[in-house]
Amino acid sequence: MSHLLKSFGNTLEEFYKLSQLLQGELADDIERAEKIGWDQGLLDRIKVDVRTIVGLAARIFRLLTVFVLCPLALVIIGLVRHTPAEPYGLWYVVAAVWTGFVALFGFAIFWRMIPIVKSLHSLPPAVYRMLAQPLWLNVDFLNISASAVFLCYMIASWRFTTSAPIVVFAIALWFLLPLALFIFGREIAFIKVRLVQLILLLLVTGAIAVSPVPVSHYEAWAQREAAQRMRPVDQREVTADWVSLQWFTQEGTPLVWYSGDKARGYRLWTAPGHDPQTNEELKLVQDAGTKDEIVGSFRVRTDAEVAEQLAEEAKNAARRSAEADERAREAIARDQRVNAELREALAREYVYSEDTQTGSKSAVVALMVIDDRGEERAPLRDRVLAVLAESSASQYVTVFRPTFVQSPIFQDLLAGKMSEKGPFKVSDYASYLLVVRTVVVLSKEQAADSVDIVAADATWEVSLIATNDSHRAYGTQIRVRGVGFQGSAAEENATAQALEKLKKIAPLLVRS
Is 221:228 a contact under the CB 8 Å cutoff? Predict the structure, then answer.
């Protein structure tokens, strides 16, 4: 083997050097010989050079043919011994790859010969054929050997039935038709056609090697197409109509074909042929027993599908219910977060500080003193708070800011409306709201000594409102008149009298 490879290397090196030399000189020698009437001495020298280069090329192609024939023998042995389910083992792939490499290498060698062969066309026809024929024969031997390997690779899993003669005839035409070009003297065209054939076989072989679809699918497709063109039939799948399907004629002739089995499931058809998915040959429903077995399988599968569908629907309903519950919880949590944020914002706006709450919340009474314009009177509120603290055991505190007086929540409390529905609950800060609304009307009076004095008619509306339900727990009015030489003196006199009366009713404002 090493001697063979060494000889091949030496031949290849010698061929390369000689081809380089002849590509530049041979055309000139032939042209010069033609001009001088084919001088025998010059023609003999040309013959020697051409025989040498052709001999080297022929030897290379013979060795390459041997390199292809050895894998072809292995492939044929594999085709004889392989099981139909495993047509493409590792050695098939190795043989195809090696053959493709050898064939392409051979045509690369021949490509260097094309300029020389074109120059030989100027020689007399008899001389040209004598010199070039060994080259054509050896090139064609290599082509036929490589094509045989690729064809064996491609048809390894074909099931030759009625299509076998057609396949053999097609292969024969594949090899013999290009010879017509050679016979008519079109050697360059002949070798180009052979090269195209070899490349096509190589591409198809590669496609088969990497394709996820088995070759048997293409075979079945070709058989179905041929059968459809020769004898068109209405081969329709009627599996979905198995309940209402007419299986037999009145005379008992079967009308239905099927594919598959009990484990994989059945498919029903209206005409013979092959299953387009599995390429399985369709079988005829021969008798009622076969029909009952197929129908029973359909019923079992239908019941299982219905049960699975019901289980899936129940699962989906449970999932939807869980999602709805989750959305409801998220909505509640979101509302709670929004309400908490709003409550905190309102608390910062309405409430001084929760530290003002001391003791039990049920005893907290928030004091608000407002005038006839609806504005809080802070100084008067502090005096009222002091009077109540002296005369009552109840817990009166200042909880709410002046902005609370302007809020709709406070207005609802005064109007006796519920205030516990919003995010801000007054009952969280005080159990009762003691509201003192003051109205002062000033007037002038004429004394006996003709000195002007001012009268202040003051009305205090005292209301004790429960914050949890807005009901009025206590309510009264305090009316007093104060006089003085100026308005402030008269108002202060009226305020002092009102505070005295408030001190007397303070026990009625006690809540515990």
Answer: no
| Six token digits for residue 230 | 């020769």
Q: Give the count of alpha carbons within 13 A of 56, CB side only.
A: 20
> 86: alpha, beta or left, given left = phi > 0 and alpha = psi -120 to 50?
beta
Q: What's the token pair of residue 415?
A: 């109007």
The answer to whether 369 and 400 are in contact (CB under 8 A) is no
Nearest 10 degrees: CA dihedral of 195, 198, 203, 209?
-160
Give φ, ψ of 155 to 5 degrees. -100, 15
pLDDT digits (tens, 9 = 90+) for 233-292: 566 788 877 777 788 887 778 888 888 887 888 888 888 878 877 778 888 888 888 888
Nearby residues of 54 by Cβ (< 8 Å), 6 or more positions away: 131, 132, 134, 135
The conformational region for residue 451 under phi > 0 = left, psi -120 to 50 = alpha, else beta, is beta
Task: Determine contact, residues 428/422, Cβ cutoff 8 Å.
Answer: no
Q: What span, in angstroms and rounded, lies between the C-alpha atoms of 470 and 484?
A: 40
Instruction: Give residue-wise pLDDT tens across range 311-320.
Output: 888 899 899 9
Q: 433 and 370 in contact (C-beta within 8 Å)?
A: no
Q: How far is the C-alpha of 474 from the C-alpha of 509, rounded, in Å?
A: 7
For the entire predicted model, the pTM comes to 0.40
The angle formed by the CA atoms of residues 387, 354 and 357, to the nearest 5 degrees, is: 40
Q: What is the Cα–Cα distance from 196 to 494, expressed in whole angstroms?
A: 124
